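Q: what does this look like with GLP bound?
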Amino acid sequence: MKEYTPSVEIVGSAAAAAERAAERIIAWMSNRSPLTLGLATGATMTPLYARLVAAHRAGLISFREVTSFNLDEYVGVAAGSPASFHRYMQDHLLEHVDIEAARARIPNGMADDVAAEAASYEEQIAASGGIDLLLLGIGANGHIGFNEPGSNFASRTREVSLDETTRIANAGGFSDLASVPRRAITMGVATILEARHILLIATGSEKAAAVAAAIEGPIGSACPASALRLHRNVEIICDEQAAAALATWPQKKDRRRA
Ligand code: GLP
């Protein structure tokens, strides 16, 4: 297993991280078409998607030739539910850009047969030619997608159980903790590592331990994000709070103040 050093860029604020990530994606999209994107949900992504929507409105980028695959979805939450990742993607990106609806894929957490849905999702990714650029957030416990600690690095799209800490972190979209799903469908670690390029964004102090474990800790399933060091093309954009526990900080940083 060859280990690679990801490019780590540390900026002054969450807004600056979204701005920098948007710049990278806009530059990426302007040079490549057609393009298959991997997309993430979560609070970290919201200001980034706002910038991509603004760039689309300004005529800088088009999604006409884009196929997208979201990382994950809750099992048992309908697409129309306000807490679904389907709804999140519509609200924050898909409804506001010129993507062809049928080309914006999100795992179906309401499938009768989730294993069949997962297998079909893998086939669809392969049929699209694979993911060119995958956006990732990181969980406070080091998860990527919904690959919780303990996830095998050979894992593919599948149904998983959510950690209690993840359910608590994600409870905001639900009426109470009891309503937060216990299961999800997620791209696997191996599926993620097959993307040609990966851009991970981490902001806020609650991500600091996970960022340090991912970049400087042992590579292993205890921190699923550490698998990213097995990939040769990973860029990580963090704000200073999320970078605060890096032992090699500030030497590693390419500081761009907001
Ligand atoms: C979510 C998603 C992840 C996301 C992470 C962090 O539950 N499954 O794909 O990266 O947790 O989310 P946030 O950006 O809200 O902190």
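Residues 40-44, 71-72, 137-139, 145-146, 166, 170 surround GLP (CB under 6 Å). Helices lie at 14-31, 46-57, 85-92, 114-127, 164-169, 189-193, 208-216, 240-243.
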